Amino acid sequence: MKNKTLFQCIAVLFCGFLFYSCRPSTDTSDCPVLKVDLRESTPSIKELFSRIEVVPLEDHNDSCLVMRLTKVLPYKDKIYVVDRKIPACYVFDKDGNFLYPIGKVGNGPGEYYQIEDCAINEAKQEFMLLDCNGIWFVYDLSGKFLRKQIVPDGAACQAVVFTEDGYIAHWIYTFKDREAIRLFNEDGEYVKGYWHQPMQFNLMISKPFYHYNGKVYFSTGCFPEVYELSGDTLQAAYRWDFGDTGFNPELIKKIGNESESGSDRGWLMVMEGWEDGSLLLQQNQYQTNKFYYLRWKGYKNGKILESNTWYRNVFYHKASGRFFVFSKLKEGLTVSAEAMTDDYMLSVLHPGDFGLMKDLLSPEEYSKVARLDEESNPCLLRLYFK
Predict the structure, then answer these.
(1) Which single residue of 53, 105, 279, 329 could bond 273 by disulfide (Cβ 3.0 to 4.6 Å)?
(2) In angstroms, what CA-CA distances link 47 with 40, 93, 246?
(3) Alpha-carbon dihedral angle through residues 297, 298, 302, 307, given to the nearest 10 degrees
(4) Residue 87: cis peptide before it, omega within 30 degrees of 0
(5) What is the tens place of the pLDDT at every residue in 93-122?
(6) Dihedral sign of CA atoms 222, 226, 230, 233 in order
(7) Hey, which residues does 317 pair with through a beta bridge?
């Protein structure tokens, strides 16, 4: 009897140890701190980039029109583009020539109702489209439909990513009593979840994940920390420090208290914080071998400000700690990262900047711009880092 009791105690302690060891680690005491003054420090093109290539996305006789670029995903020699408004997914070569669509709207095999996000499973060389109802549409990289997987606990998801240890992570911020990050196995079975912050802090963040060097990173709009995500942990990787701007700890605490009390006041407090600058609306984050990157957006009168002048890029140089904060480069060109690799970033060329390009490009590259008009498909710029 004593042996049985002893065994039970050991079992309970062991299970408790496992539970504790699997909890996310949010300790930021040892992670790098990126100190940035958010006053503009506008660089010239030559300070950041060595050359620019123009990548006009072909419309192929209107068969692959893009109304709104939701996601741009460069992989090997191709560019995968998702347009959530149509919805549609197209594949282009590295020069912007149309290759083929992936799926289409409909009810047949490989056809979807809506697209929220896409991801590439590099291990299996498969491409996934995510429906917001928690449905995975899986294709090979040539666009051939392979399978459809309904995920019972995956509804209302906005983003998806494959982790290096084989899980599929969803971003789901709309449930009060559910983790915002939910991990599933390849059969669509729920495994575990992370991120229990009040959902007001996660509002309007559609791109919380990015890949770098084989790992997945996660961030939200109202916190300075960026985390490394895997099946085992959510570990703080680095943290932004903007001084007294952007992350007001007292306001964040008050919003959390409002959420706990069940009040709707928390939503209003977040929007007020965005408007007066005490909270930043972070939209995209990336990392390369040279830079940490952050884009934040202005917010006023209940709307995200879509004007090109109402967002800021933050480039933080890893080796030197030098940083740049800007919306336009010194030459007047507006850039904003839609995707990044160690070699380059992809940015949309805005029609208002067409006139600038003649002085910034070689004659061969400018000839691509000269053929464009406001009815053309979006045009990307590939800006190579120095």
Answers:
(1) 279
(2) 15, 28, 26
(3) -90
(4) yes
(5) 999 999 999 999 999 999 999 999 999 999
(6) negative
(7) 291
Query: What is the tens place of the pLDDT at every residue in 322-342?
Result: 999 998 999 999 999 999 999
Strand order in the sheet with 311-317: 281-287, 291-297, 311-317, 323-326
User: What is this structure's pTM?
Assistant: 0.88
Enter the tokens of residue 268.
């209003």
Closest residue by Cα to residue 270 from 177, 206, 198: 198
- Which three-class secondary structure string do you get for the chain? CHHHHHHHHHHHHHHHHHHHHCCCCCCCCCCCEEECCCCCCCCCHHHHEEEEEEEECCCCCCCCCCCCCCEEEEECCEEEEEECCCCEEEEEECCCCEEEECCEECCCCCEECCCCEEEEECCCCEEEEEECCCEEEEEECCCCEEEEEECCCCCCCCEEEECCCCCEEEECCCCCCCCCEEEECCCCCEEEEECCCCHHHHCCCCCCEEEECCEEEECCCCCCEEEEECCCCEEEEEEEECCCCCECHHHHHHHHHHHHCCCCHHHHHHHHHHHHCCECEEEEEEECCCEEEEEEECEECCEECCCHHHEEEEEEECCCCCEEEECECCCCCECCEEEECCCEEEEEECHHHHHHHHHCCCHHHHHHHHCCCCCCCCEEEEEEEC
Distance CA 57, CA 79 (A): 10
Kindly report the CATH class assigned to 36-385.
mainly beta
Tokens of 136: 């995975």
**Who's near 300: CB < 8 A, 6+ residues apart?**
275
Domain boundaries, the chain: 36-385
Evaluated on CA atoms 231, 234, 235, 240, the torsion sign reads: positive
The token pair at 92 is 């282009």
- Rounded to whole angstroms, how far apart are CA atoms 315 and 321? 10
